[in-house]
Every structure is written in structure tokens, then in C-alpha cells.
Amino acid sequence: MRAPTSYQAAFAQFAQGLPAAERALREQAFASFAAAGFPDDSAERWHYTDLNKLAPQNVQLPATLGAPALDELLLPGCESRVWLNGRAQQAAAGGEMPSGAGDALVQLNRAFALPGLQLQLAAGEQRAQPLHALLLTQAQAPGEMHHLAHRIALARGSRATVLLHSAGLPGAASFSSHQLDLDLAEQAQLTLICLQQEGEQAAQLLQTRARIGRDAQLRLINLDFGGQLIRKDWQLQLAEAGAQLEVHGLFAAQQRVHLDNQYEVEHAAPHTSSRQLLRGLGSGRSKSILNDRVLVRPGAFKTDSEQRLANLILERGAEINAKPELEIYADDVKCAHGNSCGQLDERAVFYLRSRGVPEAQARALLTYSFADAVLAQLPIAALRLRLAQTLTRQLGAELDFEDLT
Amino acid sequence: MTTLLDIQDLHARVQDKDILKGLNLTVNAGTVHAIMGPNGAGKSTLSKVLAGAADYEVTGGRVLLAGKDLLALNPEARAAAGVFMGFQYPVEIPGVSNMMFLKAAVNAQRKQRGEPELEAADFLAWVRHRVKQMKMDPAMLSRGVNEGFSGGEKKRNEILQMLVLEPKLMVLDETDSGLDIDALRIVAEGINAMRSPERATVLVTHYQRLLDYVQPDHVHVLAGGRIIKSGGPELARELEEKGYGWLQAA
User: Fold this and answer.
1) Is the complex ipTM more than 0.90?
2) Which Gene3D superfamilies does its entry note (chain B) (predicted)?
3) Chain B residue with minimal CA distance to A403?
4) How many helices and strands in chain A, by DSSP H and E?
5) Does the pLDDT at position A52 exceed 90?
6) Scanning every residue of chain A, which has its alpha carbon at the shortest distance from the alpha carbon of B50?
7) Whole-model pTM?
8) Residues of A whose CB is below 8 A from B96
9) What's the CATH fold of domain B3-247?
């Protein structure tokens, strides 16, 4: 499917006034995107998600806006950087423009993307404070779109905790795309929290590529609470011996949200380990997809991987498609996987009710209990508390979390 | 003496199988009743029917709590009216701390009764005192409900909840099973601490053992879905010696 004319018009407007060299690169990217168009469901990994509903939209570049009130979104103890509708609200570190191969969505992002979070740590550098990158969307007119390119590169032995937080303020329908490159050199350690709280009319595409070097460690906590059409691709490569990956994922899909997370964990070197605990909650008429593929390359002996997927269908009408996949091309590996999809344990609901807790609150508490296996991993206490409250409010109950931390 | 619990000709079934077949029992305030009986007699069914478990269907009879129709209430309203059931198999709720759980339960009950919420600081002191009474580690309050608890710890936690919630009618379903002798004594002390002229206890148990520590006023034998014999504490000892066969044969 070819890109519609509104993208052409938006690109023409965007490309005006760009320096010639940059303009050429962007034109190349846009031409690739326009030729390929949005992916359709003929490819397996697009089986559930049809982006063609994005195509006929009358997209446009966002208007410039004054800064909104942020107090409720910022977190104590974190250094924050803010983007509003794709524009940095502080002096932006200009990143190098990425180029080269990539699918249509990569090319679309490259055609339009402005620098997003650009974090580079020198060898041995330790960031004590978590960095909160707040990516806000407040669309003024339907079809406003923005595109950001993020890069986190940790040199040897450096350490950081980053919260990449996309949030929607009330407004019109919007569309954003994000490319996220992660590069962890030897012994680097990154804790990355990717929190999605987009608005009810927001479409978001996120494509992440991570390279985890020798004895380096990536801890990813991927949380989805909002949006309308969300697609996230995770290509996480354990590139060198001793690389470690931990993924904790949680989504709470409600109403008519369409939420698609595609994980691909590639063990490309010996003595690498990956641990994934992915949980989901489906309510309303939401549709969620959780595809989790582990690939063990030839020669990646002593790979140790574990995939634990568990989902709760909270309401009739919600749909969750969860699938662990495992492809092994090496000997002497240990790969465990499990997948479950069910409802709340009625014995537990009765236990709480028998203590006087009303049914709705009992269900909310138990659902929270299920989600907490992931939320408890958050290294920022204030964020865990806030999300516990957000989640229980979504579940229609008020719970007292003052004893949580 | 005032009648706290009055069960009249109670019939109940689970999954189309009739379990209770005309059970009568009157429990006065200030008394402790032990209900004993062989496996499959309906002991656990009786507890669950009193607490309001959905998979147990009442097909006949009445249950009055202080003169009011208990069976008309949902489980949470029964709790607010003063019914407490100690579970034979308490459920684990990881991620929800014991403290959060106790506070949610107490405040939910108070709200249903139209009473104001408790002050956080007073409540904490109140709970801590009872944790000590049950010889539990106060650190358990910040752990998940029954999360990783041994069988004995879970039972102690049931009694702790009972001490905190201060119910009127306590129905303890096989609370003594799985307890070692020290834990049994602590659990029994907890039960005894709740004895008062306004309250009553129904102990559902398999063995005489618990009754060495909690002296019942009345002992009943439940078999085939009915109370087939009632007596004083001496009946429990007789059952321990002779088993149930002689009663069922009669």
C-alpha cells in the first residue's frame, strides 16, 4: 500500500528549509517509505495489526505550543527532559542522523524524525539520578504527527537508569513514531523503563534495537497503560558472551485499545542469559498481542533463557493473543517457556469478600496483585506508587497504597 | 441467653450433590460449639454456606444471625454483620501486603456499617499489638498476604485477621489442621482471647486435639448432612476413643 498524499504534503512542508545534505537523506528515506507503504497483514508479524488505518489519515505537522503544566507527570528524584509534540523543550543535543537499511516504518521515522533522547555515557560513568524523558503529545488538530529518534549508548562499565515516558494530554487524534537504539558496551548496565500512557486517540509506533555487549546487562521494564493503536517492536540482541537481559512487561488494555508488543530476543553469543516475565490485563473490547520470540543462534552454547507469559482476561469481549516462540540452533542450551491466559481465581475473590471487601474492590486488589509482579521491579518508588494508583483507578477501585513502599 | 446463630432445617448442595440435609443448630452468644464428624459429612460445606461461597447452593431452610436473615446477604455484608470464617486453605495474594489487606477489610466493614474510617496511626498500633499476641514477626505486615507462608503461618494469619476484625460469630474450618503443637497453642490462645459474652465460636474440627486447648460448651456430631448427636465436652473424648462408626450405625 502506497503512502497517501497527505504524507507527501507533510513531507514537502517539513523538507523545506532543511540543509541540502540532510534534505537528500530525508528524501531518500521518505521515498523508501512511500514506495513500500505501511506493512499489511501478509507478513506474519503483522498478522494482528493493520497499520493501513493510519494511511488514509489526513496527517499534518504539529503546531507549536506553550508548555503545559507538568507537575503531575514529573517525578521527584529524577532529572527530567521534556518533548512536546516531538519538539525538545530544552536545548537539544543534536544526534547524528541515522541512515542505511530499515523497513518502511524505519524510513518513515527517518524522513521526519527530530532528535529525541540522546544519552551517551563515557566509560565508567555512573548516573546516580534516573533520567526521565517525558514525551508529551497534545494534538491541536486531528492527524497531527511527530517522529523522534532516540539513542542511548553506554560505554564500557557505565551505568544509567532511564525512564522513557510517552504520555498524552487531552486533545485530538495523533500519531507518533519512535526509533530507539540501545548500545551497551562491555559491562555496561542500563535499566530502561518504557512507559506508555498515550491518549485515547493516539497511535504510536516504537521500534527498538538493542545490542548488549560482553558482560553487559539490560533490564527493560515495558509498561503500557494507554493509547488507541500501539505497536512496539523489540529487537534485543545478546551480542557477546556474558550479556544479560531481563524483561519485565505489563500491559493494561481497556476499551477499544489495540496493543501489539513483538519481542525478539536473539542469543548471538555463548554464555548469555535472558529472563522475561510478561504479564497482561485485557478489559473492555481491547485487543492485545504479545509475541515473544527467542532465537538461539548457532554457536550460542550455554544460552540460558526463560519466557514466562501470563495474562488475565478481566471482561468478556477482551482479546489477548499471546505466544512464546523458541528457535534453537545451538547445542547445550537451557530454554524454558510458559504461557497462560485465564481469569481471576474465584476462591481468592471469595476470600477477600469474606473479610468484608466488596466484590469490585476485591477484584481490583487481586488484579493489582497480579500486576505487581512487574511493578515491584520498578527502581523508582514514586513511580511504582503512581502506577499502582493509576492501575487501580482504571480497575474502578480506590486502594490505599501508603504501606506499599 | 440470646441466640446469635439459628440454623433451621438447612439444605445445601454443591455441583448438584446434596450435602446438607436438614441441619439444625442453635448457637447462643457467649458459647463455643465444636462440630465434629467423619470426612464428607458436610462440615466444610456448613462453614462455606455460612460465609456465603457462591458455589454452594442453599436449597432449603433458614439461617438467622441475631434474628436477621443471613442467607439474604452477600459475603461482604455477612462479614460486616459480624461473621468471620477461618479458612481451611487460606489463599495467597502476593503483592498485596497484609497491612493493606487488613486496612482494606476493616475500613470496608466500617463503611458498610456506616462507621468512620480508622486513623492510620491508631490502626497500626492496634494491628501490631495483635501480631505480637499471635507471636508473629511484625515484618510480616509488609509481606504479601500469606505469600510464601507455611501451613501453620497461614492459620495463625487467619486468627490474626480474626483478632483485628473482631467479629461476633467465628466459624473456624479445620483451623487446627497442619499445626504443630506450639502453633496449635498460640492459635488456641487467640481463639480464647476472643471469647466474650457477646460472641460465639463454631469450631469445625476433625480431632479432639484443639479442644484440649479451647474448651467447648457443646459438641455436635455432623454426619450425612445432619447433626446426629449433641453433648458436652465429654462427647469429644468419647469420639476420640470410639470413632464415628458407633453413631452412624445406630
Assistant:
1) yes
2) P-loop containing nucleotide triphosphate hydrolases
3) B100
4) 6, 18
5) no
6) A354
7) 0.89
8) 365-366, 368-369, 372
9) Rossmann fold (3.40.50)
